[in-house]
C-alpha cells in the first residue's frame, strides 16, 4: 500500500487529484476527509497542508507527496524529487516599491525584507554576499512595504498582478518552481514497484496532455507534401477515402508546434482538419 500526500485545499489540490485519477487510482474527493482509499490501486491519499508534506514524507508517514518546489526548498527535508509535474508554475521573486531606485541585489544590503520563505531568501542573499534583515510573516506579504514593515518583499509571483496592485515591482527572480512528485528516500522494494507503476502512468498522462491527435483529408497529389509536414509517432497513417483521389491522414502533433503545422497543412491543401485530445499516450 502506497501512502500519497496531497494538498487538502488550495492551488495544488484539484490538479493533484486529477492527475492521480487520470492515472486510474479512483479517489473520491474527500474535501472534509483527512484520508481516502483509492478504489483501483493499492494507495491511500492523505490530505494535508502543503507545508506539512515534506515532514510527512521525510518521516515515511507518507511515501509520496505532491507539492511545489518552493516549499521543498524552504523546508530542507531529506526527500527525492522523482518527477516534475508541469503545473503550479510560479517563481519566487523580490519586489520593491515602485519609484525606488533599485540598482542590483546590493541595494538590499541592510534593508528589511518581508517573506514567508526566509530560508530561501537567506540562501539567495548569502550567494550574493548581501546582508539583510529578514522578517518572516505567514501571509499578505505584499502589503508589508505599504505599511512600513519592510523595504522589500520576497513572494510567489505568477503574472505579477498582485504586485502591481500593491505598487510593487519585481526586481529579482530568486527561484522558479512547479509542482513535483517527491518520495521518501528509504522505500521498500514493494513500494518502489508500485511507484514505478504509477510513474509509468503519469508519463502516459503527461505525454498525452502535450499532444493532439489530428485527422485530415488530403488530395492524393498533395499527399507527399502533407506527410512531409507531419511528425507522427512513427509515421502518419494514410487511408483511402471513398472518393477517388483523396486520402485520410492521421497523426499526432506536439502542442508546442501545433498551430505552425496546422498553417502548413492548410497551405499544402489539407481539408477537413479535425483535432482530438489524447487521453493516454504510451510509447
Ligand atoms: P496550504 O493551506 O496548503 O498551506 P498555501 O496557502 O500555502 O496552502 P497555495 O496558495 O494553495 O498554498 O499554493 C500552493 C502552491 O502553489 C505554492 O506553494 C506554489 O508552489 C504554487 N503557487 C502559489 N501561487 C501560485 C500562482 N499564483 N501561480 C501558480 N502557482 C502558484
Ligand atoms: Zn502552505
Summarize the structure.
The protein has 283 residues and is of the alpha/beta class. It folds into three domains: 117 residues, Periplasmic binding protein-like II (D-Maltodextrin-Binding Protein, domain 2); 88 residues, Periplasmic binding protein-like II (D-Maltodextrin-Binding Protein, domain 2, 3-Layer(aba) Sandwich), CATH 3.40.190.10; 67 residues, Alpha-Beta Plaits, CATH 3.30.70.120. A hairpin with a 5-residue loop joins strand 2 and strand 3.
Give structural notes:
The chain has 283 residues and is an alpha/beta fold. It has 3 domains: 2-88 and 179-208, 3-Layer(aba) Sandwich (D-Maltodextrin-Binding Protein, domain 2); 90-177, 3-Layer(aba) Sandwich (D-Maltodextrin-Binding Protein, domain 2), CATH 3.40.190.10; 211-277, Alpha-Beta Plaits, CATH 3.30.70.120. The chain has 8 helices and 15 strands. The chain starts with a strand and ends in a 6-residue tail after the last strand. The structure holds adenosine-5'-triphosphate and zinc ion.
Amino acid at each position: 500500500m502506497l501512502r500519497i500526500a496531497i494538498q487538502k485545499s488550495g492551488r495544488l489540490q484539484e490538479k493533484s487529484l486529477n492527475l492521480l485519477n487520470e492515472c486510474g487510482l479512483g479517489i473520491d474527493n474527500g474535501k472534509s476527509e483527512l484520508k481516502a482509499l483509492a478504489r483501483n490501486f493499492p494507495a491511500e491519499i492523505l490530505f494535508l497542508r502543503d507545508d506539512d508534506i515534506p515532514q510527512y514524507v521525510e518521516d515515511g508517514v507518507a511515501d509520496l507527496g505532491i507539492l511545489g518546489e518552493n516549499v521543498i526548498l524552504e523546508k530542507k527535508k531529506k526527500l527525492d524529487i522523482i518527477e516534475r509535474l508541469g503545473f503550479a508554475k510560479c517563481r519566487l521573486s523580490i519586489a520593491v516599491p515602485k519609484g525606488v531606485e533599485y540598482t542590483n541585489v546590493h541595494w538590499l544590503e541592510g534593508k528589511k525584507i518581508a517573506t514567508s520563505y526566509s530560508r530561501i531568501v537567506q540562501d539567495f542573499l548569502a550567494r550574493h554576499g548581501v546582508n539583510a534583515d529578514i522578517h518572516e510573516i505567514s501571509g499578505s506579504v505584499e502589503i508589508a512595504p505599504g505599511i512600513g514593515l519592510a523595504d522589500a518583499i520576497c513572494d510567489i509571483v505568477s503574472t505579477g498582478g498582485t504586485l502591481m496592485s500593491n505598487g510593487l515591482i519585481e526586481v529579482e527572480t530568486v527561484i522558479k518552481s512547479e509542482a513535483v512528485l517527491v518520495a521518501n528516500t528509504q522505500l521498500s522494494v514493494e513500494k518502489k514497484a508500485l511507484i514505478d507503476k504509477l510513474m509509468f502512468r503519469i508519463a502516459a498522462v503527461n505525454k498525452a496532455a502535450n499532444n493532439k491527435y489530428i485527422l485530415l483529408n488530403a488530395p492524393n497529389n498533395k499527399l507527399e507534401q502533407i506527410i512531409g509536414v507531419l511528425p507522427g509517432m512513427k509515421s502518419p497513417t494514410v487511408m483511402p477515402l471513398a472518393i477517388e483521389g483523396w486520402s485520410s491522414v492521421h497523426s499526432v502533433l506536439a502542442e508546442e508546434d501545433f498551430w505552425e503545422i496546422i498553417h502548413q497543412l492548410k497551405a499544402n491543401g489539407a481539408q477537413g482538419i479535425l483535432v482530438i485530445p489524447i487521453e493516454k499516450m504510451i510509447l
